[in-house]
Design brief:
Elements: E1 6-12, E2 18-26, E3 29-38, H1 46-64, E4 68-72, H2 80-99, E5 104-107, H3 109-116, H4 124-134, H5 143-166
């Protein structure tokens, strides 16, 4: 019996660069499908920047039809205003798949690093290197796209245990 592919979109939201990465998880195998970055103009008002993220992620989801989505939990910085703005972008990124009935899982940054590299305190370069190792056909469009692929990889590794907990 052949395992059915589960298509996962990983999301790395941001107001300047919102990364996305899609992979197929087939049993223990991961296959890169696509990745990219949404780049709203920093000159646009906040509402329009959020709309660009919404519109572009809607297009990506319509094009690639993921079964599941995953996103990094908010990193709270000392700058409350920046954290709030990031939260708005994150809310939009979560809304797009949720509005289409696609379940959205959330992962802490350390959990993503541990799933991809093996340690929760890995440097960005280590994460991006392991994304290339785990998805050899991936040539991530940017660091944000590589981060989004790392979120998708983390979800692929943890989705079975999530299903047992919720199912």
């Amino acid at each position: 019996m052949t395992a059915q592919a589960i298509r996962i979109i990983g999301l790395d939201p941001g107001l300047r660069h919102a990364g996305w990465g899609i992979l197929d998880s087939v049993g223990n195998n991961l296959v890169h499908v696509a990745d990219g970055v949404v780049r709203p103009s920093p000159d646009l008002p906040m509402a329009e920047r959020l709309h660009v993220i919404y519109r572009e992620l809607t297009r990506v989801i319509a094009e690639f039809s993921p079964d599941e989505a995953a996103i990094e939990e908010t990193f709270v910085s000392k700058d409350a205003r920046a954290t709030l703005k990031l939260g708005q972008a994150r809310g939009v990124a979560m809304l797009v798949p949720a509005a289409r009935g696609i379940p959205v899982a959330e992962y802490a940054p350390n959990q993503i690093k541990k799933s991809v590299v093996g340690t929760g305190h890995a440097a960005k370069q280590q994460i991006h290197h392991m994304v290339r190792v785990l998805l050899p056909k991936s040539r991530a469009a940017s660091a944000d796209a590589a981060d989004a692929l790392a979120v998708a990889i983390c979800h692929a590794h943890h989705r079975a245990s999530l299903l047992r907990l919720t199912g």
